[in-house]
Write a structure and sequence with these properties.
mainly alpha; 2 domains; 60% helix; 2% strand
Amino acid sequence: MKLQTLSSSLFENLEPMLNESIYHFLAEFHKGRTDFSELSSIFFRLIQTMTDPPLEFIWFYSAITFQTAKSSTVTDSEKNLLSVKDLFHSLVSFHNPSDSGYLKQVSLVAPVLYHLVNYKFEISSLKTEMEGLADAIVSHMIMCCNNELVEQEVGDGKSNVSWVGLVPVWIADQVKQNQGCVDGFRLFFPLSTEEIRRRIHGDCGMNNLAGIVMIETFLFRLCLLFDSGASEMELCKDVKSYAARIIHGFKRNLSFLVMLFKLLLEPSLPVGELLAIPDELILRRLLYDVVLDFSLLLSTDTSPDFQYKEIVILWLFVSNSALLFASENGDHVAVACYLNTFLASQLPHQIISWVTGVTCMKPTVPDISSPKDIIGWLLLLEQQGLKICDHNISDLHEKALKYNSMGIDEGVKHGQTTVEDAPVRINGRRKRNSTGYWEVQKHIKLITGCHENLGDDSFCGKTEVGNSVSDQEMVDMVR
């Protein structure tokens, strides 16, 4: 494990000590030892000597302290949540005013999300307290991301810290309970997709880690709203309001935006253990509203870098997926809304400008009447050997087709069931049971009804497009 290097080589000299301590803790913990107060004291004193302690030193000290306290007392649900709250305040207390790395301040909170999601199954009765802690985490991250004194990390945001080596320490109790048969990253990042977790195995720097923590915080806070007991209309308003506020607060981290757009290209959102399928569909529908509207605020004045271009290309495919989702569910209002947003955006013109500016082929510029026009144009150019903004358009298109094949209308035309009902708990986790197509259609109508009743102009394009789009016209827009 290579440590974060500051102005001295001291931390490099401490690397063997940290590695040995991690090994010692894991070996002793799995033998049944629960008291690591001596090791905790050593690392506490060590951290106090550092002006800017690396993330993995903070994590190791916090993890062994948390595990020792957890093992030494008999706790109930309320005490469990209180311990996670104390962990959050402890982690953020390590902030140094001279530390310019907002990414580290956000990333530090990852273990709190891990414990919160796990405790969500046990302490649903403490809903108000859990919402308060989730709001505190969101506010902390927004403050870190928008601190005017903090400069963006230079380069690509990668760091030398190997935080991955600390994950086994945080999940040690779960590994012990399951006799080692666990997927460590899936357990530690329960609200991430397989694609996001695969990036961890590579050169995953602090920028990616911060993006993952932001995504999980974003999804967790929105999922809590579905337990509020609010009416359907209030739920839709609350989810869209919270989602918009958090996205605006987190938008500085482009990795977060990339992950968010990629989430909406997946067959399902990674919230299966927190939400039933009908609620997940409502969440997806509302996220399309907010995310596509947010694209209008993306800057077009500055010279775009690679990640910005990636976001814009992903926006194009998400726009098409949103239209497909709405058209397959007969939601004429949403189709008109998404099409308005697409036509009002300058991003399609920007994509065309990027492509035509890097080739001497002088390709015919496509019509911009729907996302599928540009996607088809990009696919054709890629087949002719043109690299589109360093993206593999074919791979993105294949992912979109896969999503389409797993849509809620597939397989039900002949009376088959393809969706699932509200889950039941088994061993603290949720298990879903199959239900009929028409039950889900009832919830889709709820989504449409929320949109029509809200009259949310702020989440729709302003160009007037009538609601007289036929079913076939809606399908043709996105095929």
